[in-house]
Amino acid sequence: MEGNDLVRAVHERVQRESVFIDSLTAELGKVIVGQHYMVDRILIALLCGGHCLIEGVPGLAKTLTVKTLAQAVHASFQRIQFTPDLLPADITGTTIYNMQTGQFTKKRGPIFANLVLADEINRAPAKVQAALLEAMEEKQVTIGDETDPLPSPFMVLATQNPIDQAGTYALPEAQLDRFMLMIRVGYPSKAEERDIMDRMTGTERPMVESVCQISDLEAARETVSSIYIDESIRDYIIDVVHATREPGEYGLSDLKTMIEHGVSPRASIFLAMAARAHAYLRHRGYVTPEDIKAVGHDVLRHRLSLSYEAEAEEVDTEQVIQRLFEHVEVP
User: Fold this and answer.
1) Domain 228-327, what architecture?
2) pLDDT for 237-293, tens place per residue?
3) Spatial strand order in the sheet of 115-119
4) CATH classification of 21-203+210-216, choosing from 3.90.230.10, 3.40.50.300, 3.30.750.24, 3.40.50.970?
5) Can you give the residue ranges of every domain in the chain?
6) pTM for the full model?
7) Collapsing DSSP states into helix, strand and coil, what is residue 286?
């Protein structure tokens, strides 16, 4: 099959198979008011098998969104509240001695679920964070002398509060890099907040129904991985990533003192994957530069380390990433 025919075939396949996404987002809309950006990004990560770090103040429906999504796709859901006294075994599980049989029995932790919400991940110390992140990377957990695979699909959505930093343990850069996307959630509009108030104070709470199965997600993941990315788009991704390491080569010499460390190779991998999923959600079988720009901030913001000079001049990662996309030549 020639190139154009292959792209056309993939495009038709995506248009045919991605119909359930519209039903899924409509079902989520019965419970979640607004927050289209957060829902869109969570679906992108779900279609790619990635994990999300969600940053936002309390009360923005982060937990409700994840729980509602689990109900809509008929998946198992667990919520773990991270606290300073949490232990790794509280997440992964442990072995318990049975006095009647004289043997140790295995007790699985809450991480054995399709969707796991790690609420306020920065409230727990590094040892607990590491236990979660190891499971995220390996997709398996060792309890005692037995190693068990985690269910498929498996997705961790970790939240953190950007305001209250007292008694928190910031995630190291190497651990932040494990998250495919970092999503920043904002306040709802006045109209959306009125709708939220009316729904949540009414006599009947909106209910969500299961509109697809895990098998549909597995099939969608396979289709997403086949979405066409042109060679010029692949080169564009590499240019954007390389510009964070050598900004002078792209006419951004002023950013050289602003960027302490450029992004890792995971950035280029996740940019390509997220762009494919972004195209899939829009029923397209091919990736455009706009797909890269749309997901660029979410993929790059937690991987880019800025210098003290940037902090002194009140330059943040959002501004730096915007400059990158403005100056790197688009194919």
Assistant:
1) Orthogonal Bundle (1.10)
2) 999 999 999 888 888 888 888 888 889 899 999 999 999 999 999 989 899 999 999
3) 77-81, 115-119, 155-160, 52-55, 181-184
4) 3.40.50.300
5) 21-203+210-216, 228-327
6) 0.88
7) strand
